């Protein structure tokens, strides 16, 4: 099975490590990333290739591939840098700040949007092209996105990211919708729990405040005799064992009825004794 050159390079660099870059090489790498981002966010319909990147930066394709083996690797580098910058921005909010999540969401909007409206170039690429990456490059990006989402919305991470990445909503509208979403989610969870309990013939769960403990009884009712379980297969019905089973069930039912009647009905007082009349001779 033939592997891609990207995976081969990752395998070797994970084992041996990447060679350190000089200052000039870092500047060249940054220039490649910035140039690729400009080409990918332009309105040109031509696909972005290594040859096109090299031509726009006045470099050779060999120079480009020395730093990045293919275009997908450059795109992954752009998105990872953008997500790391976003994470640094939202984690600058102090831990003890009041309403910290709302402040972090405001910082997220400041990083991902232009002051005059619209998404930044790197965030636009993140929204449009992260799904086109192969699995080995997409996993760290999705993991980083999940971390940012949990910081912005807690258990409602996907809802928070979906609202923040929509241009039609203003910050105050996003906050109002997230508050409503949290309330609706709680009510929906309670309704689902009640429906599940009803479907399984269980007692409806109640909130902790409404739970009441029944007082312990000093005179518990005697345990009722339970008839043995009856097999349900067709061949068993109509046999001697089935008739005997029905007799046992009827006997158990009569015994249970007698026990309940005796327990619920007070003992009747015995009639007074009268002397028997004597016959006069």
Question: What features would you describe in this structure?
Answer:
The protein is an all-alpha fold and 281 residues long. It has 2 domains: 1-69, no CATH class; 72-199, Tetracycline Repressor, domain 2, CATH 1.10.357. The chain has helices at 5-16, 23-41, 50-57, 61-67, 71-90, 100-112, 121-129, 135-153, 157-164, 171-199, 240-264. It is elongated.
Domain count = 2
Main CATH class of the largest domain: Mainly Alpha
Number of helices: 11
CATH topology of the largest domain: Tetracycline Repressor, domain 2
Structural class computed from helices and strand pairing: mainly alpha
Q: Low-confidence parts lasting 5 or more residues at pLDDT below 50?
A: none
Number of strands: 0
Spell out the key features of this protein:
about 280 residues, mainly alpha, Tetracycline Repressor, domain 2, elongated
Question: How is the topology of this model organized?
Answer:
Layout: H1 5-16, H2 23-41, H3 50-57, H4 61-67, H5 71-90, H6 100-112, H7 121-129, H8 135-153, H9 157-164, H10 171-199, H11 240-264
């Amino acid at each position: 099975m033939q592997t891609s050159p990207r995976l081969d390079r990752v395998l070797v660099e994970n084992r041996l490590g990447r060679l350190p870059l000089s200052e000039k090489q870092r500047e060249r790498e940054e220039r490649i990333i910035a140039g690729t981002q400009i080409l990918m966010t332009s309105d040109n319909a031509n696909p972005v290739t290594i040859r096109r990147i090299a031509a726009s930066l006045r470099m050779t394709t060999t120079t480009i591939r020395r730093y990045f083996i293919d275009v997908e690797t450059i795109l992954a580098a752009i998105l990872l840098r953008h997500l790391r910058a976003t994470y640094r921005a939202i984690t600058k909010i102090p831990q003890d700040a009041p309403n910290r999540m709302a402040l972090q969401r405001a910082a997220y909007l400041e990083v991902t949007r232009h002051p005059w409206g619209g998404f930044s170039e790197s965030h636009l690429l993140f929204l449009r092209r992260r799904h086109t990456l192969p699995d080995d490059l997409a996993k760290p990006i999705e993991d980083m996105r999940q971390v940012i989402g949990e910081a912005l919305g807690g258990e409602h991470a996907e809802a928070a990211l979906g609202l923040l990445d929509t241009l039609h909503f203003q910050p105050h509208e996003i906050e109002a919708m997230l508050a409503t979403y949290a309330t609706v989610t709680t009510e929906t969870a309670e309704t689902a729990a009640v429906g599940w309990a009803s479907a399984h013939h269980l007692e409806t769960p109640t909130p902790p405040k409404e739970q009441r403990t029944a007082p312990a009884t000093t005179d518990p009712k005697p345990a009722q005799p339970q008839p043995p379980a009856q097999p349900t297969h067709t061949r068993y019905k109509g046999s001697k064992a089935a008739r005997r089973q029905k007799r046992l069930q009827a006997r158990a039912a009569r015994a249970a009825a007698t026990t309940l009647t005796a327990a619920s009905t007070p003992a009747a007082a015995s009639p007074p004794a009268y002397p028997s009349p004597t016959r006069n001779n």
